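Students often ask what a holo structure prediction actually looks like on paper. The answer is less mysterious than it sounds. You provide the chain, you provide the ligand, and the output is a string of discrete structure tokens encoding the 3D arrangement of the protein together with FE2/S2 (inorganic) cluster.
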Amino acid sequence: MAAATDVRVSSGENEYTEEDWTEFSRTGPGTLAGRYLRLFWHPVYIAKDLAAGRAVPIRIMSEDFTLYRGEGGKPHVVAFRCAHRGTQLSTGWVEGDELRCFYHGWKYDGDGQCVEQPAEPEPFCSRIKIKAYPTIEYLGFVFAYLGEGEPPEFPRYPDFEGDGIHEANRYFMCVSFFNALDNDPVHVYFVHRAPRQDFRDWKGWTPTIRAEENEWGRANYISRQDGRVDCNLRGMPNLVIRKASGEGVGRSAESPRMDFLEWKVPIDDESHWNVHKVLVHLSGDDARRWEERREADVAARDVDPTGLVHQVLSGRLYMDQIDRERTRMTTVQDMVSQAGQGVIADRSDEHLGRTDVGVVHWRKIWERELRALAEGRPLTQWARPDSMVNS
Ligand code: FES
Ligand SMILES: [Fe+2]
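The corresponding structure tokens follow.
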């Protein structure tokens, strides 16, 4: 929690100060940003990585949970620890749609209700209930609602339900989720530039950026002097929507159209999952060839990006020394630039310019919502229109 200032408000059992309105990166229980994020559904796991009849520990927003998939295939998120003597429930056994603790065999259903205490002479199951969280499988992810009370309506993304190649991935990022959300469109030309490109011609294509709030968050329009306008969309609170085509940055004219949803989901205050949904608009033989290439590409890129980032940031490695064939360069480039700000960026000493209008605008939306939450005022109800990438 931030240091005290003159402005204090109480919100439920929590008291917040003015500095909390802009404390975007702290998302643990009780923090203002954490309370705000917990009002939304989040993708917490890759669906195909969770086999039927298995449980795993997950950490989201500095809280630990147990995610398991019943033998019939239904995923559940429940508390991290057993109510008996606190053992980690993911070490237990899945039986049907229920989860049995490893230590003394207490068993819980998907609602967290204890249903068996096998070694107890006088079981008291009815008095034991652990927390359970609404869970939905969609677009290749397990989504969970980790807040209190009834969840909001589950947001669907019909643009991503159609035919094509569907990918669902997530990448570990050693930096606050808000550094990533706070990213700007200009960085692309520097951070993700082609090798050996220099910037002597940069002034020839200085972009003009305009930011607009809309029903789902914010649109950034980036006008370049060659007449092209790129649109960069953000869905509140932590979603990036990207539409890339043959005309996109770094893509050849033959590249297929690919649409992206990217959720930045905090693991804790200093790291997050970059959760990617990709729909590649290809079918038939083109799709098969593309998938083969993609598989080979994924297999080739076997170097841990986080290790490289730490080496670069500590001066033991230079970006141009990285083996690009074996590395997911975009991930390394983004992490180096964002963790280079400090894993939780200190925004008090920045000098923002005209190309940062989108950054300022995005922070203002976040600040307005956090302040409203702290003061108990109504929050903006963000929509998810049927078509986001085509609007
Ligand atoms: S700690 Fe889980 S049954 Fe004892
Ligand atoms: Fe980037």
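The first helix runs from residue 32 to 37.
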